[in-house]
């Protein structure tokens, strides 16, 4: 195999003394496309990438047609030569399995592998990410090419790891509704519920006469004259998440068996994309890898936003949320597999980032726990759907506007070294992100404007203004290490999750939630007790009424404990009936004027806060900050708005990251003498940050 691909056999002793994935170099690299580049340029590219300081490349994730031009006829000779060329310049290789884009011969011979969208229409070849995650034929063919690649490169010294497929969360049609998925879903239900009686009872299928007398009768939620059974719809989203995860894990098993020396991951765009439960998808992988394009994100939000320009405060905060989520998935440093390196987009694209922003956005990933960054991409494609997704070299292979800035950044990150890049990220605060509540709220939002991910992003923004580390955790996660836990819109709540919250508050924690708490159980059936269901005792209230707000204006008057300007209530108001809780705010107008909007309950040694009102951002920030202070969370540093501060630490050292997201110079007061590791300067009292400036400070 190796010889066939023109690869010389490694001396294993060096590469991997005791068999576990060999320690990889610092992962500071670039995504490279030898499959799209004339071979005559490979040597020059590799030499330039080495001079640039890159340690690795990711290649081949879209090269199926070249690696298997005819079914069963594999040709890795070109890839072997590319890998050799890179090795000549000591550049390590991450190989991508190419199942995100099958070749035309495959879709022509096996047309049934395409995805069927939520309207029941099949997708068509010609783009990418259009295949069904359940289809056994596609899985067999994907496994065949991944297996061949693995056997061919298992012992290649240059190869250090694998990326399975590409961005499973990203597709024009996020879920598949085809017959193969229907059969897969029915199988999944059989193993989850065991009996039809249990399924019918749990879903309440007697409603609208949907009682199933055979699992083969269970449909997928395609258009049907009326809304689907919400329990079925929630389980279907869970099935699709499972189908993508098991599809990935099939390839993982082959790679683990064939390439025990190599690490394995996959890349995704994290929150607010919520198609697949990324906790299950990354569970068995070596580390989490995400893709990060803040400039492109700004353009996307601009295109989607009905309410005018989007603030950069929102963009860098939502980006920070994505990073904290990536880190929290494994609770350890993660990698950025694709980092923006210039203008970004397809049909429409974002402008060249301002000078300093590419470096700033890179440091934001490191500041939130990244241990490696690969830039997308080395050159800019001169053909294909992404001709405007600019790389480090322009279309004419001249230096792109960001070339020197990124080169400088890579040099600096190398100087910071493994100790800083692999340091941990202390957090006393946790924000709960729950796929079930997210999906159940998408299925039945109650108010068309109510979006779980928007609530999560606005809460994250309010909490981030406290300037302290935030983990983004799963419901049911261990809460013991946190002082305060924020959990907005816990629409789906199981007894087990409620028990975790109960013991957390009992032992002194502060738990803060808001409207719709506990409205549904884990089967998406309504709680049959007064709300907030299983947490009535902890919250010390019951819900008198839940009110979607359309035209009526509603406000909130705060009690002296939360003294401050009256708040506005957006699209939802839970009207609270305190049992043991203390009133902190009341509605000011309409049918519920004077009724209770916000409460705090002392429970055990802790506190539980229920915010019934969909508070305006300023009031929400004030309320969440005051309880964070009450919980004893101290800001890392007092910094001006638009400046981010994070801390990473190893057992003996701490590093403060200061990130200026504004185009104006800023000054930050610092306690005691510090050394800026990027400039070597020793500073006391205060440090200045230029526009989009970055500082990495170590106490001296
Ligand atoms: C994504 C994909 C890449 C490429 C880049 C730029 O993140 O993973 O293949 O499409 O974006 O679009
Ligand atoms: Zn399908």
Written description of the protein model:
The chain is an alpha/beta fold and 700 residues long. The strands form four sheets. Strands 12, 13, 14, 15, 16, 17, 18, 19, 20, 21 and 22 form an eleven-stranded mixed β-sheet that branches. The chain has a nine-stranded parallel β-sheet with strand order 5-4-3-2-1-11-8-7-6. It has a five-stranded antiparallel β-sheet with strand order 23-24-27-25-26, with helices on one face. A hairpin with an 8-residue loop joins β19 (582-587) and β20 (596-603). α12 crosses α16 (452-464), α13 packs parallel to α14 (403-421) and α16 packs across α19 (617-630). It starts with 11 loop residues before the first helix and ends with a strand.
Key traits:
700 residues; 19 helices; 27 strands; alpha/beta; eleven-stranded mixed sheet; nine-stranded parallel sheet; binds alpha-D-galactopyranose; 21% strand
Write a compact overview of the structure shown.
The chain is an alpha/beta fold.
Report Rg: 26 Å
Shape: globular
Classify the helix fraction into a percent range. Answer: 25-40%
Average pLDDT score = 94
What composes the largest sheet?
11 strands, mixed
Total of DSSP H or I helical runs spanning 4+ residues: 19
In whole angstroms, the N-to-C terminal distance is: 54 Å
Structural class: alpha/beta
Beta content comes to 15-25%
**Unreliable spans:** 1-21
The total count of strands amounts to 27
Bound molecules: alpha-D-galactopyranose, zinc ion
